[in-house]
Design brief:
Blueprint (H helix, E strand, L loop, with lengths): L1 H17 L7 H14 L10 H16 L15 E2 L8 E3 L12 H14 L7 H4 L3 H14 L3 E5 L2 H12 L5 E5 L4 H9 L3 E5 L4 H10 L6 E6 L11 H10 L3 E5 L14 H4 L7 E7 L10 E5 L1 H10 L1 H4 L6 H14 L2 H24 L12 E7 L1 H15 L1 E2 L1 E3 L9 E6 L6 H17 L9
Parallel strand pairs: 2-11, 4-5, 4-6, 6-7, 7-8
Antiparallel strand pairs: 1-2, 3-9, 8-9, 10-13, 12-13
Pfam family, one: Aminotran_1_2
GO molecular function, one term: pyridoxal phosphate binding
Keywords: Acyltransferase, Pyridoxal phosphate, Transferase
Length: 453
């Protein structure tokens, strides 16, 4: 249509130009073309269209149900305390993925600054053309050594890593068996591949066994699971998953985004937490955007053959710009910290903070998933979406505490919650202030007398 319309207008303008003493410029010719395009569209206005009203209805429905998500604006670096637009002083932050407090760590920031001077701002390229620097290869080596795997490939994000994995590795003759509460990026990645898809009930090993039995005719069987589930804070039962993988000749894919850096003695994730070592785990995907500094970037680490195939076939890797040099350099420093005494101390502090918060909340009578010894993702169950949103606002406006209410479609209907995330950067006093605020609002809204969800 563009070529046809442009040809018509150019032909008419050329005819007009030849009949006049003063020719029209190219600019004048194109101006006439775009003017014609602007006036030749549909007569119905945007605000009168069916699409407009459908989308407006979607937003109105979200506002009425309490599921509309408004973005608060932070005007400071990420940390245990942040400045939020519209507040007069800093507020306590209990909703960041900054588990180890590394998002604004001086060593990490300094490494990023140095890389800007030595490697530049960006590479304006994908990895296989001219987007691989020495620091990208160094980072991949650091990740490999940290996890004790064979090789690693870095992506722009873990969402990209998950989007690229399944399509590249599995075919229509294969089957992927996925936990029903897996992260959206795993679900979307599986949708992109042509393998048979089966879902098992959340962490239900009997149901997983049944699905593996159903998939016995498949060429390859792959179990896909989160290591730590981001909304419920559950830790996948890796011993039993590995046992079933062995029994049914299946392989395992694990997303460790909410565990890398702090779960397990060295912080390598779920398998280490459960003291499991299995050749069935062929790939671990994780992120640089949570405990590992909180910027951008993700990775797949595992069998070298898997990584080699991903470099050739994973579409988000092949068609997305490479990780910015400053992020790559800063992430190298993060892995150095994780493997040091400082890293050990940060993990110990995080778990101490987690036990303290969980213990006090359970003693107060709140419905907290995972019990006293659960991970630093702590869902405080409320049920009602509007209540979760209102309480989060009251926390900020009355107590200077930044938390977020989560509701459908992020979590199932009727299971709204405020998700608290602890950090090694929090003090005991910070946590006590949070618990006291919960008790005050819990009493106001009669939450402590309700049955657990």
């Amino acid at each position: 249509m563009y070529r046809s319309g442009l040809s018509t207008i150019l032909a008419s303008r050329l005819s007009y130009t030849l009949s006049k003493d003063k020719p029209l410029s190219v600019k004048e010719i194109l101006k006439g073309y775009y003017s014609m395009q602007a006036t030749s569209g549909a007569t119905k206005s945007w605000t009168g269209s069916t699409l407009y009203h459908e989308l407006q209805g979607t937003l109105d429905g979200a506002r009425q149900s309490g599921t509309f998500k408004a973005e608060r604006v932070i005007t400071s670096p990420q940390g245990s305390k942040v400045n939020v637009e519209g507040t007069s002083s800093s507020v306590l932050n209990f909703c960041a993925n900054n588990y180890l407090g590394l998002a604004n760590h001086p060593k990490v920031v300094e490494a990023a600054k140095r890389a800007l001077d030595t490697r530049g701002f960006g590479l304006a390229s994908v990895r296989f053309i001219c987007g691989t620097q020495d620091i990208h290869k160094e980072l991949e080596k650091k990740v490999t050594d940290f996890h004790g795997t064979e090789d690693t490939i870095v992506f722009p994000s873990c969402f990209d890593a998950n989007a690229g994995f399944f399509e590249a590795i599995l075919g229509p003759e294969d089957a992927v068996i996925s936990d029903e509460l897996n992260h959206a990026s795993i679900i979307d990645g599986i949708r992109l591949c042509k393998a048979q898809r089966l879902r098992y009930k959340h962490m239900d090993m009997e149901d997983l066994a049944g699905k593996l039995e159903q998939a016995q005719k498949a060429r390859i069987r792959l179990i896909a699971t989160d290591g730590v589930f981001s909304m419920d804070g559950d830790i996948a039962p890796m011993q039993e998953i590995c046992r079933l993988a062995e029994k049914y000749d299946a392989f395992i894919f694990v997303d460790e985004c909410h565990s890398t850096g702090f779960l397990g003695r060295k912080g390598t994730g779920t398998a280490e937490h459960w003291n499991v070592s299995s050749d069935r785990i062929i790939c671990i995907n994780s992120t640089l955007g949570k405990a590992l500094g909180g910027a951008t970037g993700g990775f797949s680490t595992g069998k070298k053959l898997i990584v080699d195939v991903l470099r050739q076939k994973a579409r988000p890797y092949l068609f997305s710009n490479t990780l910015a040099p400053s992020v790559a350099a800063a992430s190298i420093t993060v892995f150095d910290i994780l493997s040091s005494k400082e890293g050990e101390e940060l993990r110990e502090k995080l778990w101490k903070n987690t036990v303290h918060f969980r213990s006090r909340m359970e003693q107060a009578g709140f419905d907290v998933r995972g019990g006293v010894h659960g991970p630093p993702i702590v869902p405080v169950m409320l049920g009602d979406a509007a209540l979760a949103s209102r309480m989060a606002d009251e926390m900020l406006n009355e107590f200077g505490i930044y938390v977020i209410g989560f509701s459908y479609p992020v979590v199932p209907q009727g299971r709204a919650r405020i998700r608290v995330q602890l950090s090694a950067a929090h003090s005991t006093d910070d946590i006590d202030k949070l618990v006291d605020a919960f008790i005050s609002l819990g009493t106001r809204h009669n939450i402590l007398t309700r049955n657990k969800l």
